[in-house]
Amino acid sequence: MTLAGAVATTPDLLRLVAVPVFAWVAIRDIKTRRVSSTVWIPLSLLGAVLLVWDGWLAWNAGGYAWTHEFLLPAAVSIGFVVPIAYLFWWFGGFGGADAKALLVLALLFPTFPQYAVGSSTFPLTTTPIGTFSFTILTNAVIIGVAIPVVLGVRNAAAGRVNSVMVIGWPVSWDRIPELHGRLLETPEGRSRGGLDLDALRMYLRWRGLTLADVREDPDRLRDPATLPEEPNPPTDGAVTATVRSDGGTALEDDSDGGDSLETDTEAKTEDDAAPEYDDPWGTEAFLADIDGTAYGTSSEELREGLEVLASKETVWISPGTPFLVPVFLGLAIALVYGDLLVGTLV
């Protein structure tokens, strides 16, 4: 609540620190899909302090201010928004950073802040319960739901009408190494679930290859005998990770006098244009060797993605929705306007 003649209470003014921080993490989420956990610690501490501070102010005000303007919205924020964030993370609906962001918002914004600017007071609208963190969440969900609509309209306007037009768009193959998201194609056609591009980068770095290498010599690189003797660190698949490359050096075959299996593969392809291997591209060897699961990627998904990227000039990808972007936009809209859902229904 705003004190008479004041712009806002001190706790509400301090809450505005979250705006530039959430803007920064939204940009990080777009560019890298990586947000350090350390960014949430100071915001969580600030939120806890401001929660106690607001409670003290409401207690001193007494009556309605304590029960309806603080206690009820704070209980909903901590007792409802926090469990929702945890459950969505548990079931895979949110990433770890998304869930932590919502937990922080539940502490920072349990009640509706008020900012007097001239003769106006922001947010312009409130809700009956008055839980601001829930308003931010519903705003973020509405924005997230609108994204497929925007994608669909954009693709339809360009004449790209197909089964994945509301979740992705086409890009040139040479942009793939710098993008996050998921491939929406298999050798059989477009698919709503395909290879995770971070997992692709992990595989290429593990082999010491670039995507251009794969496209230049796919027949040789399908042979698992060309896997490096000492694989490179796969990293976590981030675009910005520091990597080293050995060019995908072939292993040696001790059974025929030390000739490389690369030479043997070339000899086989003269007799058989499409040789079959137990582990094409060495995808099973990769998944067995790394410490982790490559974001749940299966050997088959990785193999099919490589087949697509080895030959197609343009592929469809889904960038996914970096949820911290809708969260930031939901926060900004909530601070200025309020609740989009209530505004739509009322």
TrEMBL record:
Bilayer topology: Multi-pass membrane protein
Q: Which GO terms describe its cellular component?
A: plasma membrane
Q: Where is this region: Disordered?
A: 217-280
Signal peptide start-end: none
Task: Give the stretches traversing the membrane.
Answer: 39-58, 70-89, 101-117, 129-153, 323-345
**Where does this protein have compositionally biased stretches of type Acidic residues?**
251-264
The entry lists its GO molecular-function terms as: aspartic-type endopeptidase activity
List, for all copies, the residue spans of the domain called Prepilin type IV endopeptidase peptidase: 17-146
Write out the coiled-coil annotation as residue ranges.
Answer: none
Domain spans labelled Preflagellin peptidase C-terminal: 300-340
Localisation per UniProt entry: Cell membrane
User: Mind telling me which InterPro entries this protein's record contains?
Assistant: Preflagellin_Peptidase (IPR052218), Preflagellin_peptidase_C (IPR009655), Prepilin_IV_endopep_pep (IPR000045)
Say which domain of life the source belongs to.
Archaea
Per UniProt, the keywords (alphabetical) are: Cell membrane, Membrane, Transmembrane, Transmembrane helix
Q: What is this protein called?
A: Peptidase A24A prepilin type IV
Q: Supply the source organism for this entry.
A: Natronorubrum tibetense GA33
